[in-house]
Automatic annotation (TrEMBL):
Keywords: Hydrolase, Signal. InterPro entries: Cellulose_Degrad_GH3, Fn3-like, GH, Glyco_hydro_3_C, Glyco_hydro_3_C_sf, Glyco_hydro_3_N, Glyco_hydro_3_N_sf, Ig-like_fold. One of its GO terms (molecular function) is beta-glucosidase activity. SUPFAM superfamilies: (Trans)glycosidases, Beta-D-glucan exohydrolase, C-terminal domain. Residues 696-765 form the Fibronectin type III-like domain. Pfam families: Fn3-like, Glyco_hydro_3, Glyco_hydro_3_C. Coiled coil: none annotated. This is Beta-glucosidase.
Length: 782
């Protein structure tokens, strides 16, 4: 009797333990992979599809005083779609209709993330948290965050250590506010400057793009998502998006398979090796196949060849574009099926993949395909710890976002991104006893220096060129006149600008372009701006604003010529999102600079350069053409060397890698030493022979003298940012590794061929200060 009672009690205890034991997916002792597999087998089809839907997030919250709540729209979305991801929840701009008045500051953003996260978890049958994805290529696109220079400006630094520091700040600011995924870096090769999104890129060279991309990914956490400030990096845009036909955004890209393998794929591959866990498809098509449904690229190469372990995401509504833009399918459901089967895991926009539930029920799609896509998302939610610690501290966000250290870093980026192209002795400017005229449409319009994908920012967070110069010499010594707008000729007042110049010792004229969005501009459903001849905003660059020419718009050339006619020294600064026509300024300005879009500290950074508090080190990440008839004009074209046109030279006005300093540098004592059959150490002495302390950016180029396929005239392989005090000499060393000698052979396989390689070292791609030869005695088949 006693025995039977004990057995009975034991069985009751075992049943109780079994009933109270938590599922594997809720137990942090298990690996993310084990937890994901356990969770997936518990999920319904509807729940799994929800994990591959990413909807727009800015309408999903309501601000109530100092609190933020989940909106009715979000509650309905979660009930009907079980969505697992939101995009641009914290975004503010004219497209989203979120402003400084009705948008989220960092503290409210953290509260919004917590409110939405809490609602999602508590109203999810299995307690699944949300992913929040945000635009973050040059700072988190949200109110009150730190705004850095756009991609061209970042690349102009040629300083990977600085870009890694920037990436770390961006990741930390994202995570402090409750976001998890950073859309960036942008790895498109900018081979078409008329294209509206050139500003977002790292320029025309695949090696520079790759090194900048690696640095940004490393700063964002390098794939170690367990760290508090680490964010998932989403690489954009896969693939060959930066060279559309006619320069029109989203047009087909005419690119050879060899070019893809040699130039377009490597930056993405290298960034994935550096830890990127997400890849975004592009709107274009290649050889008749829309990129969002290209199985060869998304599965065969990205996953099978590169062993990519993260998740892919469509660009906004690009899955619907398979039907509505490319006309490859007749229904959105068919587009969704083709996309997910090709390897696009997540639908940004959510509308297309919502059709997948019915596709499975109708037998058009295997549920296992959805299982695989959902696994790729859920695995990283577990790895990031969202199932265990999903919430953030709003007080910490308020205190640490846009900190003094982050602002100082933005200033450093602005300094190093400024490129000095001409200096006929007028720079650096004297701070004492000088009267300055600061003139031009970009001298004191804060949003014109921030670039696209930037939210409204408090006035006190942004320093314009006018304000930066006033801080150096005092407001009483500066006369300001706008002169004209970027495009709108009804705002022209050149007379006032001429008057200001005549009363000053030097005129600083700030011209160029703008990506500043405004509430009068029309926008597509994707957020791209629509060029509208009835509305004359400053915006001539930024997504959707493609150009027919590269000339300065509006009355800017009239302004420049009028100021030059005063006889006063003229410093011309281009703040721009693409390489605009500089022909006149190159010949007539006493000094010429470009700062691209230099970010919130652009005014201070530019002023630091103008007055010699920072010796300019910026280098061009993209060539500046003399006219659109030269396009494409990137420096690393394949042989043969181009001959001149009837009308003039085929050479660009300024080529990749160019940029001047206030100092001068001597290159000497080149040594090339083998390490093994395919590795060489290249070293030389670099001396600052000028009057100023400063940095030089030595660049190493290789040319394969003879090969089985046509090779570039020259190709950047290494570069460095080297600081030298005046009179100082340092030995600089580069290691040329095996892959730097490789090419895609006639059989479309990577190969190294024996033969001679010319080594060229100098301050730009234009000319070499040192030259040598490396002879490979044997080849290698990968």
């Amino acid at each position: 009797m006693y025995y039977r009672i004990c057995i009975g009690l034991l069985l009751i205890c075992q049943i109780a333990v079994a009933q109270t034991k938590q599922p594997i997916y809720k137990d942090p002792a298990y690996s993310p992979e084990a937890r994901t597999k356990d969770l997936l087998q518990r999920m319904t089809l509807d729940e799994k599809v929800g994990q591959v839907l990413c909807f727009m997030g800015w309408e999903m919250y309501e601000i109530k005083g100092n609190d933020v709540l989940a909106s009715n729209q979000f509650q309905t979305l979660e009930k009907e779609q079980l969505a697992g991801m939101l995009w641009a929840t914290f975004r503010a701009d004219p497209w989203t209709k979120k402003t400084l008045a009705n948008g989220l500051n960092p503290e409210l953003a953290a509260k919004a993330a917590n409110a939405l996260q809490r609602y999602s978890i508590e109203h999810s049958r299995l307690g699944i948290p949300m992913f929040f994805a945000e635009e973050a290529a040059h700072g988190h696109m949200a109110i009150g965050t730190t705004v850095f220079p756009t991609g061209l400006g970042q690349a102009a630094t040629f300083n990977t250590e600085l870009i890694e520091k920037m990436g770390k700040v961006i990741g930390e600011e994202l995570r402090l506010q409750g976001a998890h995924i950073a859309y960036g870096p942008i790895l498109d090769l900018a081979r078409e400057p008329r294209w509206s999104r050139v500003e977002e890129t790292y320029g025309e060279d695949p090696i520079l793009v790759a090194r900048m991309g690696e640095a940004m990914v490393a700063g964002l956490g390098g794939g170690d998502v367990t760290q508090p400030g680490s964010a998932i990096s989403t690489l954009k845009h896969f693939i060959a998006y930066g060279g559309p036909e006619s320069g029109v955004n989203g047009n087909a890209s005419v690119v050879s398979h060899r070019d893809l393998l040699e130039n377009y794929f490597p930056p993405f591959r290298d960034a994935i090796d550096a830890g990127a866990l997400s890849v975004m498809t592009s709107y274009n098509s290649i050889d008749g196949v829309p990129s969002t449904m290209n199985k060869e690229y998304l599965t065969d190469i990205l996953r099978d060849e590169w062993n990519f372990q993260g998740f892919s995401v469509s660009d906004l509504y690009s899955i619907q574009g398979i039907m509505g833009s490319h006309f490859v399918t007749k229904t959105v459901q068919d587009a969704a099926i083709k996309s997910i089967e090709a390897g696009t895991n997540v639908d940004l926009g959510g509308i297309a993949y919502a059709e997948l539930r019915q596709a499975v029920k109708d037998g058009k799609l295997q549920e296992s395909v959805i299982d695989s896509a959902a696994y790729n998302v859920l695995r990283w939610k577990f790895a990031m710890g969202l199932f265990d610690n999903p919430y953030v501290d709003p007080k910490k966000a308020k205190k640490e976002v846009h900190s003094e250290g982050n602002i100082a870093l933005a200033r450093e980026l602005a300094q190093q991104s400024t490129v000095l192209l001409e200096n006929k002795g007028v720079l650096p400017l004297n701070k004492k006893g000088v009267k300055l005229a600061v003139i031009g449409p970009n001298a004191d319009v804060m949003y014109n220096q921030l670039g696209d994908y930037t939210s409204p920012q408090p006035d006190e967070n942004v320093v314009t060129v006018l304000e930066g110069i006033q801080a150096k010499v005092g407001a009483k010594n500066v006369i300001y006149a706008k002169g004209c707008a970027i495009r709108d000729t009804t705002q022209t007042d050149i007379e006032s600008a001429v008057k200001a110049a005549k009363s000053a010792d030097v005129a600083v004229v700030v011209v160029g372009g703008s990506s500043a969005r405004d509430f009068n501009t029309d926008y597509l459903a994707t957020g791209a701006a629509v060029a509208n001849s009835k509305l004359v905003s400053d915006m001539e660059s930024g997504e959707g604003n493609d150009r027919m020419t590269l000339d300065l718009m509006g009355d800017q050339m009239k302004l420049l010529k009028a100021i030059k006619a005063t006889g006063k020294p003229v410093v011309v600064i281009y703040i721009e999102g693409r390489p605009l026509n500089m022909n006149w300024a190159s010949e007539n300005a006493d000094a010429l600079l470009t700062a691209w879009y230099p970010g919130e500290q652009g005014g201070n950074g530019i002023a630091d350069v103008l007055f010699g508090d920072y010796n300019p080190t910026g280098r061009l990440p993209i060539s500046v053409p003399r006219g659109v008839g030269q396009l494409p004009v990137y420096y690393d074209k394949k042989n043969p060397v181009a001959h001149n046109y009837v009308e003039g030279t085929s050479a660009p006005l300024y080529t990749f890698g160019e940029g001047k300093s206030y100092s001068s540098f001597k290159y000497a004592n080149l040594k090339i030493e083998p390490v093994d059959d395919f590795t060489y150490t290249v070293s030389f002495d670099l001396t600052n022979t000028g009057k100023y302390d400063g940095a030089e950016v030595p660049q190493l180029y290789l040319r394969d003298e003879y090969a089985s396929t046509v090779r570039p005239i020259k190709q950047l392989q290494a570069f460095s940012y080297v600081y030298l005090k005046k009179g100082e000499t340092k030995q600089v060393s580069f290691t040329l590794k095996k892959d730097m000698f490789s090419l895609i052979g006639v059989d479309y396989k990577w190969v190294i061929e024996p033969g001679d390689f010319k080594v060229m070292i100098g301050s730009s791609s234009k000319e070499a200060q040192l030259e040598g030869t490396i002879t490979l005695k044997k080849g290698f088949q990968y």
